[in-house]
Amino acid sequence: MRSAQHTPTGRERAFPPAQRGVGGYRPTQIVWAFCIVRRGDKVASRKNPVGAPPKYRSVKAMQEKIDAYFEACKGQPFLDDNGEPMRNKNGHIIYDDKKPPTVTGLALALGFASRQALLNYQNKPEFNDTITRAKTRCEQYAEERLYDKDGSGGAQFSLRANFGWQDKPEQQQDSEVLIIDDL
After folding, report:
1. Which whole-number Å values give the CA distances from 25 to 29, 38, 76, 80, in the listed order?
2. What's the pLDDT tens digit per position in 113-147?
């Protein structure tokens, strides 16, 4: 008696048994799971197997972008016919395209997709001080706006939402009830 011959189907037909590897996957697919790539005679290892590569390799590169963001927030002064900056009635220079520095604006200027992505990047020890200092500059601007009659409402919201400020201090109730039995 002759045994019935197995007819290859689907994946078996596309890759002969020698090329199938474990579980029907090609060996190059399995290799990626272990973070090693085999190309010809070369073997390359990936250091960061999950997620995108880091946006910044050095604190200095990030600090340059942060400084450029705060410089752009200042805007350009209006110039009169003589090329001198124009001043308002209080003697302050009038700026065009002046923008308030914000945490979200900082995140976008640094190339992050969201404010939360910047906050997550702050958890890296080498970037913690740099990002904290930049956020403190945004907080300083909002705090200074509290003294303006025009911007105090927005500044209060920003300080509460971004920096954990509160209107009233939390009161802890440490009262104890003492029961005295006088019989």
Report:
1. 6, 15, 60, 72
2. 999 999 999 999 999 999 999 999 999 988 888 87
